[in-house]
Write a structure and sequence with these properties.
Number of strands: 15
Radius of gyration: 22 Å
Structural class: alpha/beta
Number of helices: 9
Strand order of the largest sheet: 10-9-8-11-6-12-15-14
Strand content: 15-25%
């Protein structure tokens, strides 16, 4: 990886601090580097303002002159009552160079942010960064498909069950896996279960990790009926338009809701927590997802990472990009 690639990857990691509190804005991060050293950094603040570039430039002050700004997303070019356009702030900063990890698909900025910076005499380069794209995956999904990025979480036994035949499911996985799952909840704008799971389990769907309790996401239920107090209803997994503004959705079950999102083609990431137990005759983790042939099941998912969590294992898969 080049030096630019490493700094962009560092900015992408820093952007995790903005998620999901930056909503409705994307969680962006910026790092200002001079003579090989970080002199300032910033990320999008809660509620969406100030933006990452504004935070970093304010921290750097005059030291930004002659430095390089690494930013995960193209600086915005549109005016807002909530704050100045970042492209204008960068253009007036005295920076020598700007490196952008992702172009902004928002038509109000797309290309215009970089052009405005270049017009001020600052070298402005786009270097496509997979790490930056991953850090902005929810924002990019909403811009390209007008829906949130959807992560489906399944907690399974070795034989693919989510519960005993009686419905008993507490607990399939151990303490470490459950704590990890709660931390993942804290990174999402919204969390969803099916109507059956809500009625049978009465889940809280909150975050129970010390220090992150305030990060509990919005609670949604997949149902055509009215949602209970404190919940919101999604009538169909095929139409996510009611989830306006949600960038990251965490689907936790049960088997029917999981199958509905898979059948709709709306699952972008699988997180499978697997416990070293056999149930036999239990409730399967998935209902029918509408596959007509076994061949149709292949080539859909790409393995990305495996993590050991106590005695349990987490495997993460990304949906494969369609062949061009």
């Amino acid at each position: 990886m080049t030096a630019d690639g490493r700094w962009l990857a560092a900015a992408a990691a820093l952007a995790g601090r903005a998620r999901p509190l930056s909503r409705p804005n994307p969680g962006v991060a910026a790092i200002i580097v001079k003579d090989g050293k970080v002199i300032a950094r910033g990320w999008t603040q809660p509620g969406g303002r100030p933006h990452a570039e504004a935070v970093a430039l304010a921290a750097a002050g005059e030291a930004s002159r002659g430095a390089t700004l690494y930013v995960t997303l193209e600086p915005c070019a549109h005016q807002s009552a909530r704050g100045p356009a970042c492209a204008d702030l960068v253009a007036a900063s005295g920076l020598a160079r700007v490196v952008v990890g992702c172009l902004d698909p928002d038509p109000r900025t797309s290309g215009a942010g970089m052009a405005r910076i270049a017009a001020a005499g600052i070298a402005c380069t786009h270097k496509a960064s997979p790490a930056c794209a991953e850090s902005l995956s929810g924002y990019l999904a909403r811009q390209s498909s007008n829906r949130p990025e959807v992560t489906l979480k399944l907690a399974l036994s070795l034989d693919g069950c989510i519960a005993m035949a009686s419905g008993e499911s507490q607990w399939i996985t151990g303490d470490e896996a459950r704590a990890h799952c709660h931390a993942m909840r804290a990174r999402h704008d919204a969390i969803l279960v099916g109507g059956g799971t809500m009625r049978e389990d009465r889940p809280r769907l909150d975050v129970r990790v010390p220090g992150l309790e305030s990060r509990s996401p919005e609670r949604w239920v997949l149902t055509r009926n009215a949602a209970p107090e404190g919940w919101r209803a999604l009538p169909s997994a095929r139409d996510l338009s009611p989830m306006d503004g949600v960038q990251y959705l965490f689907v936790e079950g049960g088997a029917g809701a999981a199958a509905a999102f898979l059948a709709a083609g709306h699952v972008d990431r699988l997180m499978i927590y697997r416990a070293p137990i056999l149930i036999g005759g239990g409730r399967p983790g998935l209902a029918d997802i509408g596959l007509a042939t076994l061949a149709a099941a292949h080539g859909q998912w790409q393995f990305t990472v495996r993590t050991q969590l106590g005695s349990d294992t987490l495997e993460v898969y990304r949906r494969c990009e369609p062949s061009r």
